[in-house]
TrEMBL record, chain A:
Keywords associated with the record: Coiled coil, Exocytosis, Transport
Superkingdom assignment: Eukaryota
GO cellular component: exocyst; plasma membrane
Domain Exocyst complex component Sec3 PIP2-binding N-terminal: 31-120
Molecular function terms from GO: phosphatidylinositol-4,5-bisphosphate binding
The keyword ATP-binding appears for this protein: no
GO biological process: exocytosis; Golgi to plasma membrane transport
Protein name: Exocyst complex component 1
Recorded coiled-coil stretches: 217-244
UniProt-listed InterPro entries: Sec3-PIP2_bind, Sec3_C, Sec3_CC
Pfam families: Sec3-PIP2_bind, Sec3_C-term, Sec3_CC
UniProtKB/TrEMBL annotation, chain B:
The organism's place on the tree of life at top rank: Eukaryota
Gene3D superfamilies, sorted: P-loop containing nucleotide triphosphate hydrolases (3.40.50.300)
Stored PROSITE patterns: RAB, RAS, RHO
Family note: Belongs to the small GTPase superfamily. Ras family.
One term of GO molecular function: G protein activity
Annotated protein name in UniProt: small monomeric GTPase
Species of the source: Agrilus planipennis (Emerald ash borer)
């Protein structure tokens, strides 16, 4: 850079008698690579002007590109006060934005600019913005600040010494001086003389002053010296103090350390004490409790209360939460052994007492005496009431001594189980007695009530009053079971804590049973299931004979009433739904399933009996027994059909009636006298009518089917039996129709040998009115003989009359068609027929 | 469950007569099964049987529901003959059906040859009051003239349905008891006795 300056000065400015003050290598902002030099230049000859000149370098030569007078400069914007910033703006005739190539150059350039402008423009200085303040101070280039030493600067300093602009004050002083010597301008010599005289005067004065001050300086020096001595002394003393203080500091530090150690020890002691207190508090068992545990009196309420209190205290002590490490303390171990002893003793005492009580209550009579009317299952709430005070002890045992608790539970179920066995047995025996005195059931023959058997063969000895009685008895029995079971279940759950799977509080460390310490937490659903299971197990062992007795009782009813499954099912179902005791509900449900199977067997038996039905060898078949019996059956089954379990029956009903419809058809062919159509007609008619009356909705299809089969059978019977009275005529004309069908013209039939007029006359002559009448009469008699129900006789006869008239008309028509003009006609008229009908009607 | 029925309950045979579409079957079905069938399907002949309690006595009613339209009246002779009591039905909304009762009455009397045969004149469809063509007065007068009771019924609303059947059965029962008295000792079987009587007449 220095070389470039030099070159610039030499080549560009020297020839013009100009001097370079500062130069800066710049580029235009945003237009890189157009490098040029901004120079601050002053001319060497007055009048002094400072210019800003932009020099462009091309090849090795430098050219002036633009130049401004410094006066034109309005503002300088440094953009940023940071030293390493390279940008700056100059506002001249317009705004020029530059980027310097080095921070140093920029700084120097701006400083120079400021100095020049502050030096030469007294009035309108350009504004300097965003420029470090140190750059634009008067002393900016004083030796301390001058970190740049450049030849140009020194050069510049010389110049400024030569050319010092006169300041305003100097100007004023000068002018006032001139004014004092009015002659100054007119007589310069005189003026100079005055001035020289003044000067020498002042010089002399100055020297005098200088000499006078020497003595003063000397005394001042002395004073200073003594002051220094004093200061030295003070310093020495301070050093001594300092030494002393150092000692003190060391001592203090040592003391501090000791202090903190003491407080730690103290804290530890307090903690230890606290811990010990806790342990002792937890493991301490008051003397009073120890005595009680030693010799527990569980027979009276006072003793019991104390025992419970003591037991709880022991439990709390044994179950307290201690740090495992503390358990190793021999004192703790010892205390625990002591507890263990108390526990064993106390637990034995409880077991003894409860055992005695359980066995004692095993002989309990129950509250209600047996001589009351009706069936009663005695309740044992007294037992429960008396055991309730022991509940807490039982819970205690459960937590503290699982084995003992299980054993107690077993004793309870055994002894109370016996009690309940007896009660339940008595109840059912009484119930059986009520159904029929036991001795009377000497004939073990089962009552038969099968659809397939004749009603006469039903050995059903039960009348509906009896059945109502049975229903009441079974309802009573079931009702009796409910409260007893519920009460017992509730008692067991609370007394034995069956609703809690794991003991309430864990006795992990202190009990030495070594039972699985951590009971893994079961998911609630599973846990619930297990609780149910436990309750059910206990109840099952308490009421072990219940299901068996109930089944035997139902079996007993069955002997008297095979239809028992209908109402027993209904009552059981109601009780399964309403039973609050989960055990009873389950037991009844399993009996219910048993009953459902009984029903299924019973219904299957009915269906089989339909299939095996034997047709009575009577002259008239009439209504088949199973069709006849269906009405009674439906009456007996109604109770089930109206209950919640109707679906069980409906399913069977459909099968039953389907079987009937199927087997009416089969059995119709088995009677030796009555024609099958009649059997079908009568039975389907009866079945249809019955189903219409019963209105069992699931059998609607069967009802429609029966009606259809009835109509089919009726039509079959009427047409089949109808051929008889005019058989030969029918045969003759069937032949005629066959001929016509084979292509012979109707009018030419009479030329056929077999169907000549002669032949026709012969056939017709065989049916005079009297014969026809006889034929109709015998037909009517036959119909009457076949049919068992008079209503249907009328229906059939009406259909036959209609059919006969239809056939008569058909024959007449055929004669008209095939034998026109032959004057041949049947020997009886329609009026004759109607008269025959009326005569037949009148004849019976 | 009762033991084997020792004796069959008394059987009363009722015949439903009247023109087509007056509601004979509707009345019968309503009485038998408590149902009302809207669809009209002409009947040829249907027989129904039901056990009921008549004034505390178990009886069996045998109903023969007959065809309203018949090509030849003589066809009816046979079942008229078998009937013990008649419900002669017309529709109060149809004048012709009322007129036809006259013919039915005559035929029944002729066949049964009995002026006092149990017989009820029944005006059905009384729920259709706004379509009434036969006045109560008119029908009552005819009944009075015949010496029978006139009842209006509705098979649809079941009004008086039971009443006509029960009233008729009471008449039949009274009639049979009367006959038993007059011919006591001649035989317990009513049918046989009746048959005998018929031949005499």
């Amino acid at each position: 850079m220095t070389t470039i300056r030099h070159t610039l000065q030499q080549e560009v400015f020297q020839p013009n008698e100009e001097r370079l003050l500062a130069a800066c290598h710049v580029e235009k902002l945003y237009k890189k690579k157009k490098a040029s030099f901004l120079c601050i230049v002053s001319n060497t000859k007055p009048p002094l002007t400072i210019s800003l000149i932009q020099i462009k370098q091309s090849e090795k030569t430098y050219k002036r590109k633009r130049s401004w007078n410094l006066v034109e400069l309005k503002s300088v914007d440094g953009k940023n006060v940071l030293a390493d910033n390279l940008e700056f703006d100059l506002h001249l005739d317009k705004l020029y934005r530059w980027v310097a190539s080095s921070a140093q150059e920029r700084q120097l350039f701006i400083i120079t600019l400021w100095r020049q402008s502050s030096k030469y423009f007294l009035k309108e200085k350009p504004v300097f913005k965003n420029v470090p303040e140190t750059w634009i101070r008067e002393d900016v280039l004083t030796p301390e600040n001058k970190f740049i030493s450049s030849p140009i600067l020194t050069l510049e300093n010389d110049i400024t010494e030569d050319f010092k602009a006169i300041t305003d004050k100097e100007q004023e002083d000068l002018s006032s001086l001139m004014a004092n010597c009015e002659f100054a301008i007119s007589n310069a010599e005189a003026f100079m003389e005055v001035l020289a005289r003044d000067l020498s005067l002042l010089d002399g004065e100055n020297v005098q002053y200088l000499l006078a001050s020497e003595a003063k300086v000397e005394s001042l020096m002395n004073l200073l010296e003594s002051a220094v001595d004093e200061a030295d002394k003070i310093e020495q003393r301070l050093d001594e103090y300092d030494e002393i203080l150092c000692h003190v500091k060391e001592t203090m530090e040592k003391m501090e350390k000791k202090n903190s150690m003491i407080s730690t020890v103290n804290k530890n002691n307090i903690l230890l004490l606290k811990e010990l207190e806790i342990i002792i508090k937890q493991l301490d068992l008051p003397r009073k409790f120890q005595d009680i545990l030693d010799d527990a009196d569980l027979t009276n309420t006072q003793g019991l209360k104390q025992a419970i209190e003591a037991g709880n205290a022991l439990r709390d002590a044994m179950n307290c939460q201690l740090d495992p490490a503390l358990l190793r303390m021999s004192a703790v171990q010892e205390q625990r052994k002591k507890f263990e002893k108390y526990k064993d003793k106390f637990s034995r005492a409880i077991c003894r007492q409860l055992n005695n009580l359980f066995i004692h209550y095993g002989n309990h009579k129950g509250e209600s005496d047996r001589n009351t009317e009706g069936l009663v299952l005695p309740q044992h709430s007294m037992v429960h009431k008396e055991l309730i005070p022991y509940t807490e002890l039982m819970h205690w045992i459960k937590i503290m001594d699982r084995k003992a608790s299980e054993a107690l539970k077993k004793v309870y179920t055994d002894s109370l189980g016996k009690l309940y066995d007896r009660d339940v047995h008595n109840l059912f025996e009484a119930a059986k007695e009520k159904i029929a005195p036991l001795g009377q059931v000497s004939t073990p023959t089962r009552n038969l009530a099968l659809l397939g058997l004749d009603r006469e063969q039903w050995t059903l000895e039960v009348i509906s009053d009896d059945r109502q009685r049975y229903e009441i008895i079974i309802e009573q029995v079931l009702t009796q079971l409910e409260p007893v079971c519920l009460q017992e279940q509730q008692f067991c759950v609370t007394f034995f804590q069956l609703d809690i799977l794991s003991p309430t509080s864990k006795n992990t460390q202190t009990t030495l049973d070594g039972m699985g310490a951590e009971v893994n937490v079961l998911p609630s659903k599973k846990a619930e299931k297990q609780v149910h299971e436990e309750v059910r197990n206990m109840m099952t062992s308490l009421f072990s004979c219940l299901e068996e007795e109930l089944l035997s009782f139902i079996g007993y009813i069955e002997k008297y009433d095979p239809f028992h499954c209908m109402y027993v099912l209904v009552h059981l179902n109601q009780h399964v739904m309403s039973a609050q005791s989960s055990f009873l509900s389950n037991t009844l449900a399993s009996v219910l399933i048993h009953m459902k199977r009984t029903l299924d067997r019973f219904m299957q038996l009915q269906i089989d009996s339909i299939k095996d039905c034997k047709i009575a060898r009577k002259s008239k078949c009439g209504i088949l027994p199973y069709v006849l019996n269906l009405e009674e059956f439906a009456k007996l089954a109604d109770v089930l059909l109206k209950s919640d379990r109707r679906i069980d029956l409906e399913k069977w009903y459909i099968r039953l009636v389907d079987t009937m419809i199927e087997f009416i058809n089969v059995h119709a062919n088995e009677h030796h006298k009555t024609p099958p159509q009649v059997i079908k007609m009568e039975n389907y008619h009866y079945l249809y009518s019955l189903l219409s009356q019963l209105k069992i909705s699931v059998l609607d299809n069967q009802r429609k089917e029966a009606k259809q089969k009835y109509n089919e059978a009726l039509a079959a019977y009427v047409t089949h039996y109808f051929g008889r009275p005019l058989e030969k005529l029918n045969i003759f004309f069937e032949g005629v129709q066959a001929k016509v069908a084979s292509g012979v013209k109707a009018s030419e039939i009479s030329y056929q040998l077999a169907f000549s007029k002669q032949e026709l006359r012969k056939v017709i002559s065989q049916y005079p009115g009297s014969t026809v009448k006889k034929g109709l009469e015998s037909l009517y008699k036959k119909v009457e003989k076949h049919l068992s129900e008079e209503g249907l006789v009328q229906v059939v006869w009406r259909a036959m009359q209609e059919e006969f008239i239809r056939q008569y008309k058909m024959l007449e028509d055929l004669i008209q068609q095939c034998y026109p003009g032959s004057m041949i006609a049947l020997e009886f008229t329609i009026d004759d027929i109607l008269n025959f009908f009326s005569d037949i009607a009148r004849s019976h | 469950m009762s033991k084997k029925p020792t004796s069959q309950p008394a059987l009363h045979k009722v015949i439903m007569v009247g023109s087509g579409g007056v509601g004979k079957s509707a009345l019968t079905l309503q009485f038998m099964y408590d149902e009302f069938v809207e669809d009209y399907e002409p009947t040829k002949a249907d027989s129904y049987r039901k056990k009921i309690l008549l004034d505390g006595e178990e009886v069996q009613i045998d109903i023969l529901d007959t065809a309203g339209q018949e090509d030849y009246a003589a066809i009816r002779d046979n079942y008229f003959r078998s009937g013990e009591g008649f419900l002669c039905i017309f529709s109060i909304t149809e004048e012709e059906s009322f007129q036809a009762t006259q013919d039915f009455r005559e035929q029944i009397l002729r066949v049964k040859n009995d002026e006092n045969i149990p017989f009820l004149l029944v005006g059905n469809k009384c729920d259709l009051e706004d379509k009434r063509k036969v006045s109560f007065q008119e029908a009552s007068e005819r009944a009075k003239q015949w010496g029978v009771t006139y009842v209006e019924t509705s098979a649809k609303t079941r009004e008086h349905v039971d009443k006509v059947f029960y009233d008729l059965m009471r008449e039949i029962r009274a009639r049979k008891m009367e006959e038993n008295k007059t011919s006591n000792g001649k035989g317990k079987d009513k049918n046989k006795r009746k048959k005998l009587k018929c031949t005499i007449l």
